[in-house]
# Entry
Amino acid sequence: MTVPQKLSELRAQMEREGIDAWLVPTDDFHGSEYVGDHFKCREFLTGFTGSAGTALVTGDRAYLWTDGRYFLQAQQQLAGSGIELMKTGVEGVPTIEEYLRENLKAGEVLGFDGRCMPFSKTKNLSRVVGENGGSILACTDDGPLDLIDRFWEDRPPLPCGDVWELDIAYAGKSRAEKLKELRGCMEKEGCSFHIIPSLDDIAWLLNLRGSDILYNPVFLSYLEITQTGAILFAQREAFSGSLAAKLSADGISLRPYEEIYSSARQIPEGSRVLLDPARVNLTLWTSLDHTERVCKSNPTSLMKAVKNPVEMRHMRDAHIKDGVAVCRFIFWLKEQMRRYDPAHPVTELSAAEKLFSFRQEMEHFLGNSFETIAAYGPHGAIIHYSATKETDLALEPKSFLLVDSGGQYLEGTTDITRTIACGPLTEEEKEFYTRTLRGNLNLGAVRFLYGCSGMAFDYLARQPFWEIGVDYNHGTGHGVGFLLNVHEGPNSIGYKIMQDRPLPCVMEEGMVTSNEPGFYLEGRFGVRCENLTLCVKDEKNAYGQFMRLDPLTMVPWELEAVVPGMLNERERKLLDEYHEMVYGAVSPFLNAEEREWLREATRGILPQAAP
# Structure
């Protein structure tokens, strides 16, 4: 079916149910950032494959809202579909709520699958629709309202990979210890029940991992916790008998995945239930109408973001392994460009495959942490570009290859971007690489008093751009999980206050956060310089506890792209010190040729002292 045919089928189902506008979010039932194939209704309907976006279909129009990371990608993928791109955050472009306020008339109905919409989002939608005398329909007496399922004939089934246990030698804490701490948080709130629908929170809390979402080692589940026990709603066939027995010994019983809603309705009337309204879907929320809902962020969100000493130690180890793999890849790529053969070129896809093969050679490597972005030349300007057979560019010995990639290891999760010179660069390419690197170096060297959030020092990364009146249209940093999601809250680095998102939290010791300024010139090139950092304690004095961000990523920057005269003395010193650290950490694991290359790639750029 073509996209216009799918839109026609959807409108027929809307008419059958008396629905005037149908909303299609990206979400699964758990508010996950990335979703399994079964849940990709928006992608199926629109053809847009980006990880963030919401479609809205009316009787005669169709729209897709997405953010700045995906403007170029969405423009290309929506061409000829009849779906209009709505650029979130751009002046003059209404939000979904603003559009509905202006266009949904009295008596008209907005519909969506209530299992795929967090309650916090539907609360605002209900208010906006109600202002015009409209209404919302999210389920029927027959069950969930999933209109797309009615004509998605080859829809993939629910994913159901094997669930396995992460040993305490890597987790650092037993699930019994974590549950005890969580129950202490429940007690403080006076809650006898707590329901967790977010998959990474459940996996972290129970020291379990799975494979139900590509790249994210989680499994479909809900967790209902009391002061004396817990019920894990999951697909029973994903658990071995021995693992089920271990869970039972810790007071955790297994029940079928779909029974969460009936179980919620059976919680005693008036019970205080701790819930995160941003993570609980509308259907689950309404199943608890008879209880007293206490709305707070999941306590596990902060608990898992603050890595314990064992996790911190392993994260450093994971990044040395990853650094070895990425350094080998860069050396290989440089050699391919030096011996460039236009008859047998390296392409974006083959470069990504080669990087994966180097990671595969590392002990305890489990897979990529997200889809590798290998974007050559003008494709680098598409922030979350994804190469396909149709778009796969051949590399030439000039311009940049931007590679954003990461790995999942038993020792932790990695995320790194390196912008690699394939050959001679233009002065413009060098200038913006140097500005991007300056932003990374200055943010990476920040020292701050405890109590700051990432909003306090985002400007350090942007200043080299702001001083010439340009910017990049994405956040500067996101949290990263421990063998979990590559994007993890609540820590982040950014200056924007988003209405539908909480403010960044205080940066705590043990938080892992990315540092990734960038610059993107449409149709020309893109640059991003990304390291992961670990927040640690620094000096404590009469003014308080100072903190700093230690680099975890151990891969050199591209000195061939640096304009030394654009760096001040402090920035040159920071660059040299980082490169000395990289060489010391990675060189012992390289062969002689690779080590020689790394020595040159990490050479000092400060003037040598007189003998």
